[in-house]
Amino acid sequence: MSRHLTLLLLGVLTPLAVLPALADTSSWVMETTEAPKPKKGKAVKIAPSETFAKPTPSAAARANEGGLAKSLVEPTGDEAAYIAFDQGQYLTAKKLAEEGAARGDPQAHTLLGRLYAEGLGVSKDTQAAVKWYARADELGDVQGTFALGVLYAEGRGVKKDRLKSAELFEKAARTGHPLANYNLGLLFLKGDGKPQNPYRAAMHIRYAAEKGIAVAQYDLAGLYQNGSGVEPSALEASRWLSKAAEQGMAEAQFEYAVVLLRGLGLTKDEPKAVPYLRAAAQKGLASAQNRLAYVFAEGVGVKKNEEEAAKWRLIAQAGGLKDETLDALVSKLPKAKQMAAQQAASEWREKAGMF
């Protein structure tokens, strides 16, 4: 899979061009990115992600992310600062957190680090974030330790140091922190900050996957598909991919749909694949949009509809995905159907904020 999902805020490391025969992906990003663009009839190769996962700041954000990341700040002690943060009252949160930090509250230091790292209520200052997170780490707050590890991994506010980030992730992982385990697994997978060890990598990624981290479930599916650190198993790959898809991860939804369309490790089930494919397409994944166009063009699990196929092809085309076969299909449609498809595609993109 190409670049991919980092959780919000501080970060999880995503493997960097990790396995043989797997393409390099991007470095560090904050948004879910597009999965590979499969050609018609070809299976998708799932590869581990290439980005550090990042913790969410609050229970509200955690709910919005479907459980992908644990809260950066758990409201114990002076809860007022965290409540203010959850409500977007960042100046109030900063004032209350500063008061808590003055009393030696470890989590107040982490909250201040978060505010400075993301420029919430203050000017963005990653060097200040490093200072607050480092103090939180010294005081024993595991979220501060994890956050500091991300900054070292990404080289934000401090010189990039994967050895230091590995040390911090390992410290947090020993407490059972799922995202720290995930990031540590990525470092073992790449051999960056840790000796390359696919078995240790799989162990840490599996732990995070079992704790419900969607990106880890997605990557674990890739490890099973490629037999890296685990025995290859199409059934296990499909099982973990389905878990990530159920959490709403667009890449997982797309690739699980392909699994269902082709019966890879599962019984072929075209009708069941379509909702997953449509969900990924609605999230803006061009590869899913293009595959959905084929589904409608060929009547796979749905009633054949060339106009709907043309709509999704035009949407995918606007996203930069090339496909001469589908373009030829669109060009052969009657002018009226082409115009209707173009109108529908334009309306979809406008509604999705893609203009």
Automatic annotation (TrEMBL):
InterPro entries, per the entry: Sel1-like, Sel1_AlgK, TPR-like_helical_dom_sf
Keyword Thylakoid: no
Cited Gene3D superfamilies: Tetratricopeptide repeat domain
Annotated signal peptide: 1-23
Pfam name, any one: Sel1
Swiss-Prot/TrEMBL keywords: Signal
Annotated transmembrane regions: none
This protein's name: Sel1 repeat family protein
